[in-house]
Fold:
Amino acid sequence: MQKQHRCSPQKAGNNLLTRRAFLHLAGTAFLATTAGCASRTAPPAATPAAHGQAIEIALTAQEVSWELAPPTTIHWHGVDVPAAMDGVPNLSQPAVQPGATFTYEFDARPAGTRWYHTHANSARQLDLGLSAPIIIEPQAADPPADREYTLLLDDWVTGSPAPAPPPADNGMMGGMMDDSGPAYDTFTINGKAFPAIAPLTVRQGERVRLRLINASNMQTFVLSLAGHRLQVTHTDGNPLQQAVEVDALPIVPAERYDVIFAANHPGRWPLYALNQPHTQGGLKTLVVYEGSESAPEAELPDLTPGLRVWSYGLGQGVDRLPQPSGRGATYQLTLSGGMMMSGDPNVWTINGKVYPQTDPLVAERNQVISVRLSNMSMQTHPFHLHGQSFRVLRVGGQKLLVPLIKDTVDVPAMMGTVDLEIVGFNPGDWMFHCHKPMHMDGGMTALVKVG
Ligand code: C2O
Ligand code: CU
Structure:
């Protein structure tokens, strides 16, 4: 895998050698290779010469595999694991060193579309693709389906071809260009960009389930299946009381949706993103009916104004959280940062502070605490809580008819607000953070301490 975060391999070389030793060894060659970073050159071997001699240094520019940061950990996103299995380096466990092993052991619950991913050096390691689905089968059947596919969506920086214009941050809403992050140019489904991904085969008359997981670092994908409507049955793996039929489904980083479609329209239909740079960058596959293998691929439909797009207010969750023993504090978290608000593209704050200076939220065991997230920045923040799902009560001040049960919630850019309730049923210190790794690394994390 050759996924690169811009031009950092040389600079990060101090993971293997000390920076001092490295600079000493490489001398001026360091500058030379840094300037040539677009071709991903490696630090050259340079032979220091003895005093008084003419120095001849041979520089070799070549592609190499370069280990940036060896240890890692795994976080089980959306699974109610014990705190010691949560996989946050230095909070729940030491990072697992190269060659070492660590056994994660937990009850696989609750059922649903979950996923797991690295939680060490996340911006880099997630970019390298360290994530995968974990599907926990329910005991009683979900809405029945004849066939199912799990699709893990991701974003990549390949640097070639020349990066497409960065996709809009907010799906169809247009970009909030406060993004100094890497230039994501390639978008994949299960690790493949169109047309490399195998088509999804269906048979007429079937009900087909798609488990959609957004494992990308920064993208809000707005998915649509030409010729079909999607019935949303689960948010982050948790069931809705009734399926909600939509034409398009925005999905923010770390969110999951289960959808079902009725295969009643034979042909070869694109499943794609409404945001064109995503589709052009590879986020597309074909749903192909048996018997229609040689049919022409249906054209991408024109976007009609009447399109029904999923939003949280359309869903009604099934509340599976334990009955709280009492009510705790109410917290107001103001999210800010980025170039526009803090003057630094890499600083992301909660109530003006960066983690670990942020104030923790505290719940006694089984107490329910209330949280309002307000986004004063120019980027959307998909907020995720470890260890337990929460209730989404209100979005933009508007009360949902019935709360949704989720573990990741989008807090829209520019004054977006979300009100949550957390029932602290799983004791431990849990991270509560923006799931864009650049924002998490930039400080946008608080702890939720459950007694
Ligand atoms: Cu899926 Cu702390 O993250
Ligand atoms: Cu964020």
